[in-house]
Amino acid sequence: MDLQSRKEIARYLLSRGITEADVEPTGAQAAAEPAAPAGMLAARIPAIPFPAGLAPQPQPISPVPASSDPLPKADVVVITWTVDEGDALANVLTPGVGRIHWYPYDRDFDSHYRPLIRGGAPSLYVKRLASYMPTTIGQKKVLCMKSELHLNQDGIKTGDGTATLPVRDLFVQIIEEVQPELVLTIGTSGSVFQHFQLGDVVVTRAAKFRCKDEFRNEKFNGETFTSNWQIPLTHFDEATSLMQTVASNLAEPPMLPPTVNYHYHGAMIHSDTNVPDIKLDGRDMPEFHPILTTDYFEYGTSTNHLDQEGAAVEMGDAALGLAVDGMANPPNWAVVRNMSDPQINGELPNEGYDMNPQTMWAVGYYTGYGYYTSVTGAIATWGIIAGL
Questions:
Q1: Quick one: pLDDT band at residue 243, thresholds 50, 70, 90?
Q2: H-type helices in 95-253, by residue range?
Q3: 330-345 in b/e burial notation, b at 16+ Cβ within 10 A?
Q4: Dihedral sign of CA atoms 236, 242, 243, 244 in order
Q5: Does the pTM of the predicted model rise above 0.90?
């Protein structure tokens, strides 16, 4: 499968699930119109039994802020990207306040960002930069955000292998307005380690650009950014225990060949049972083992050895490292990425087909398990914040 096809898959997955309700979120009218389209508010998971005093508590703002207002101050900013990831983050950290009731944020969208965004990008459809909702975890003020800008969605070509990167500007703007002590970027990713299974969560303090398309000739391509701070582990065991809330939703189904034309007469093939876990850099992998940020849809296989290069593969986090790099007083930051697709069997063919089997399985895992794995990622995020 060629690089352009991988690019289109990336754009599809990042925008998947956006509806008319996202174009006009009900945050500004939440008090008067509490109802929302079916399924948009209802949590798909049971209530999570957080420890006493550490359960997330949404903090709606009164009066309701204008979409052009600066963001409120907070100790921690948590930023995620897709509809499934936003739903999961809301279900876990702003329970009772669904994603479409978060406040829209479009500060400087027309004056600064619009000229940097390609036609057809999701942010132009929803006409904003992000949406947000404050919450608290213990004594910490937390700002939950869903970005509408994406490294893989927005770039306008500026040269051979160079393009605009407005999400970097958004990261800077968020940090300047919120003034957080910590920024966490969270979401789905492809596993590169065989033993990092579906629903496991990677936490790392490093991110590396691994671009082959519109950013391949940018100076930052190939660069690794790090945040030198100690991630608190106080509540990691509790978070891992809470992640079992959705363990049953991560069970991989038994398999048979797709048609009876395959000459197979054995029993159903079953995968190993997986118990979601948190994988930390410096403990479960090398210290500062980076998340790998690509500008196309990439995934780990049993033969491409991406585990030697990074912790997991996704499409945006290194832009945070780039934004923070050079700041006079940068916040601490880390990447929290759940395994929405496990390492793919590298013995499957990967070329000669419009949708090769490797890519087919990677996309299938993501679309089937993206939401529930994002719940484990949001719970791991809670574990970090609860320990601050």
A1: very high
A2: 122-126, 151-154, 166-178, 236-243
A3: ebbbbbbbbbbbbbbe
A4: positive
A5: yes
